[in-house]
Write a structure and sequence with these properties.
Helix 6 links the parallel strand 8 and strand 9. The chain is α/β, with parallel strands linked by helices. The chain is elongated. The longest helix has 15 residues.
Amino acid sequence: MLNFFDLSFRELENLLAGLDPRPFRIEQVLRWVYTVGADDFMEMTDMPLSLRESMAGLWDLMPMREIERQQTGDQTVKFLYVLGDGEMIESVLIPEDGHNTLCLSTQSGCSMACAFCETGQNPGGRDLTTGEILAQIVYAIRYTGDRLKLRNLVFMGMGEPLLNLGSLLPALDVILSKRGLDFSPRRVTVSTCGWVPGILKIASEGPDINLAVSLNATDDQTRSMIMPVNSQFPIRTLMDAVGKFPVKARRRITFEYVLIEGINDRPEDARRLKTILKGIPAKINIIPCNDNFSGLRAPTESKAKAFQEMLLDYGVLATMRKSRGQEIGAACGQLKAGVVGQ
């Protein structure tokens, strides 16, 4: 049986035409799946029973199985899913006033091995298919009960998104299409550890979405120590690529900065950030390092605040991300999947 979400609009149209040639049927199906969040073709009561039975025999609306759900006191929810081949992934639903942000995975592991990230301890994972990416969103819609309650999508979960553009770009087509999930491009962010070929490709061929770059250091020696990708694409090469990314008026590229005690929290780091970001419409998102396997720790709250104030004094827009979901291993750098209950 085919994963429904792996099929493009054109493929669905062609396959559905063999069951019912009337062109309006495809729009009915897409509305039920992407707007309503139906998980069973039998729910689609404005279509003949025979057609629903035929579709149910061909396409799977439940291509992955939720095996664990954990929730914090502030209603942050982490979902653990097992895929058809036994691989496992996690996604995180983060509540905000009147809406939610979904943190999505693009791989079931990660080969980037960033020192502060749990996912990098499982380099043997694989790329997700387009359908496995989209299914995470649809499952979240089913959980919230309303597509409109899901406002923001951030590709900041397991994996390096730009190493899986073959699945990510078709998924973005469905995410942004009015026939599909109908998200505003302003509400979709793709994060990268600094994979330069992917940045250049999405800059030239990708849709109009937001880019976030995990920077985390201001000199190559430090960045290579905590992010091995820097040995291949050092900071100057990375920033040259970022400079080619089109940014519309009143929008900025986000630079994520995981703040680590004694590693990248020095006054000279703040000064260098100003120089590195010169000429780029940028904002810094400071993320105090979350507890994980590595032993790396965040500086004290007062020291983190002082670092932010230094950036602001230098004229760099800098915000401090409030950590959500630490107690259930759902915060930045904590997603690992594969260990139920931990």
